[in-house]
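Lecture notes, continued. The same structure-token format from the folding unit now serves as the input rather than the output. Read the line below as a description of shape only.
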């Protein structure tokens, strides 16, 4: 059973507004990409990191410790393109692929284990999902409430998202009606089942400076 991971890290991090691409921004001395690959490497046999164009070298240096199983490629303009480019480099003998955002570098190992467990149980797509705590309203374009949704059937999806290699390849080979912000969207569009497992608060995507402050505080609490 061979498991590969794709780590999309090619975004610029516009909302974070740092002077470096987001994946190279450090929290408590280690970059987001270094932290993400450190976790991913414990669960997979090979890793492909999609780096921002022009930053392949610093990304390679950041993940040097795992270079035996890690390769770095140049990512694309969109997240989907970055994942597609990485997917094209995977060998055909890979059984499962986990796609994990570099920006979610604090995801606990237990979530990886849950996703892998779901794949090994025969599911072709498995994604972590967190329930909603607030009351959820659907609104119209004029910002008026249309109705209150039943939050028990709604959730926020995270990464790592796991797929059989053939399912992810088929999904990426198709045209998509909207810009896919995650990979499971494309699998849904094919009409294939996507199983959800329990996500985790620590899988928060580092997006803004407030997220970075949250991460710094988290690590400060963990420090001895
Ligand atoms: N990503 C990527 N290639 C892109 C765009 C995004 O590999 N062309 C990656 C990011 O590096 C990140 C993940 O997809 O790990 C989730 O994207 P997001 O959090 O939106 O990161 P950015 O696109 O970098 O941030 P922003 O949208 O604020 O510019
Ligand atoms: Mg983005």
């Amino acid at each position: 059973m061979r498991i590969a991971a794709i780590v999309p890290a090619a975004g610029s991090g516009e909302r974070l507004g740092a002077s470096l691409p987001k994946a190279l921004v450090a929290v408590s001395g280690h970059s987001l990409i270094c932290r993400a690959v450190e976790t991913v490497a414990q669960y997979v046999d090979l890793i492909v990191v999609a780096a921002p164009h022009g930053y392949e070298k610093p990304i390679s240096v950041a993940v040097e410790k795992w270079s035996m199983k890690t390769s770095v490629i140049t990512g694309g303009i969109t997240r989907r393109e970055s994942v597609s480019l990485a997917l094209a480099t995977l060998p055909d003998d890979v059984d499962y692929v986990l796609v994990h955002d570099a920006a979610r570098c604090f995801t606990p190992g237990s979530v990886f284990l849950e996703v892998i467990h779901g794949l090994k149980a025969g599911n072709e797509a498995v994604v972590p999902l967190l329930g909603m705590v607030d009351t959820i309203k659907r609104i119209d374009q004029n910002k008026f409430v249309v109705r209150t949704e039943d939050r028990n059937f709604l959730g926020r999806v995270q990464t790592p998202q796991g797929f059989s290699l053939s399912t992810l390849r088929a999904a990426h080979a198709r045209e998509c009606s909207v810009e896919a912000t995650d990979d499971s969207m494309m699998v849904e569009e094919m009409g294939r089942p996507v199983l959800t497992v329990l996500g985790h608060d620590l899988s928060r995507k580092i997006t803004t400076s407030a997220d970075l402050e949250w991460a710094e505080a988290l690590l400060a609490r963990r420090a001895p």
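Point for the exam: Helices lie at 32-40, 56-62, 79-87, 109-120, 165-173, 184-189, 209-222.
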